[in-house]
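To fix ideas, we quote verbatim a fold written out as tokens:
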Amino acid sequence: MGPSDLNPTIPRPTAAPAAANPVRRVAAASLIGTTIEFYDFYVYATAAAIVFPELFFPSDNPTASLLGSLASFAIAFVARPIGSVVFGHFGDRIGRKTTLVAALLVMGVSTTLIGVLPTHAVAGNLATALLCLLRFGQGFGLGGEWGGAALLATENAPANRRALYGMFPQLGAPFGFIIANTLFIALSFGMSDEAFASWGWRVPFLLSAVLVGVGLYVRLSLTETPVFAKALAEDRTARVPVAEVFRRSWKVVVLGALSVVLTYVLFYLTTTWSLSYGTKGLGYERHTFLLMLCGAVVFMALATPLSGVLADRYGRRPVLATAMVGGGVVGLLTGPMLGSGSTALVMLWLCAGLFFMGLVFGPIGAYLPELFPTAVRYTGASLAFNSGSILGASLAPYTAVKLQAAHGVSWVGYYLAAAAVVSLLALLALRETRTSSIDG
């Protein structure tokens, strides 16, 4: 029994806030974790464009098979906001670190199990149903992953370097994409189409188990972020974070979701849909177009840290607005460039699209978390980011296939330009956060 138990006027001692994690460890944990998560996600995206139509959605009509495969691809984006609510609840109640470990496990197990699924030829519609269930698991896990990784970075960052720190989890997107597609390229070169369709496509999914082990090792070495540890010590956590978010910040969630629509539309048109269109519509060999995409994604990887530096210097909104305008211009040039079939113009379109993707994606890692208070930051930022995926990513490849088939490739570009306008208008309705405190 201590003095505070005898005299209620003496405040009870509270745990000291955790010290900030070392910069290198924060960068490694946020980057490696999201690289693995996005690797898992893009392995499915690539397979959905090139092999799943025949293996899990067979039909006499190739377009119908492709649309079925892309519809399964979209399931994960419906699952992501659900994952945001569930993982966000625990992330805002018990801590960022533990929740991030759980999210990584859910994503990794779902991806690995896809690698051992029977195909439609073996199990019929059961195979298709199981694929969709595991795709839901991927989205559910990623729904909890992104927000936690972004908070891990920004809540450990100096006040004048939050955008730079926040871009580390964003770098996981191009890195994961390059790793996933390099594997598919190597498999395409190393085996026949028959062997690839029989078992080769399973290798990238099974490899996820090894990568998840690496990610868990890195993340378990971290301590809790000092910002959340302080809030926990001062009993400033929300009892039901999602209820608190919708009571106080629902407008920010809606505007935040709309502001990231372009991010999703731009990325999945320049990767998943363009891969399908390039191989089936323009006649490129699969490995050739994958190599082109891997080269173009380098521009996204370069633009992402650049955007973090610029956002810390000039503010989040100016950098994001510039990138959104650039994304809209890329949309208007889709018909003349991508539709031309010229390798030089197609490559230029891919590089430009993914460069502006990096510029618009990089600052989001800091910007969305900065819009919410500590007590609901995990839930709020995750909900905004992942709700935008329903309007953006889940519909983008499917809508593009329908538009291209009905009206031509230029209309896919108009769709991209419209997404840029929507995101820009939402951004203009949000506040600047560069000088805001996140310790509250």
